[in-house]
Amino acid sequence: MPNYEIQRLAMVASQVLAGGVTESRLLDALRDIAREQFVPGAKRSIAYADAPLEMAPGRWLLTPAIFAKLLQAADVQPGDKVLDVGCGTGYSTAVLARLARQVIGTEQDAELVRIASDRLTGVRNATVVQGAVSDGHSAMGPYDVIVVEGGLEVEPERLLAQLAEEGRLVAIRRRGAEGQGVIYLRQQGKTGRRMLFDATAPVLAGFRQPVGFVF
Questions:
Q1: Which of 178, 134, 181 is nearest to 159 (CA)?
Q2: Residue 23 pLDDT > 60, yes or no?
């Protein structure tokens, strides 16, 4: 039987720390939260692999290193309210709940909302809501941090409108097969963006580029 704890510690050492992530609270969360419990049973043997992992059609776990680097760049603080866009089965929401005051995960599919809510039972500061992921969840905004669990081929305008002053949105910006981690910062009512590192991730539904549109 696989020893998932050993795999989890190895993931942090060989992928996350090696990728330059040093934030102690984030590292502790990644060491503690059982990633394998959030993936389909048939895929648990690869839960800690250095590759995107499809949890459901169109829903992927980012690679551990990319996910951790995005969260470190977002600088999630204990008092922050966070929106987790495309949270899938809830792993990313569970990690964020260890870092922030409140986390709202969004999913479009009712079955994924049910699964994520079940997996997050007992996590008192996390909620999963249903709705189009590209719409965010303005009813509970604004947010100090927004994390997009996938690639963007277009600007996430509706999400950016839900950032609080000094808020940060992190995602993977895709251009063809290539991509980069990106952070959007809202300051004095305006939003700018800065590229962080080379990375790629499957494009999240709702953020695909229309034919003839240039991002």
A1: 134
A2: yes
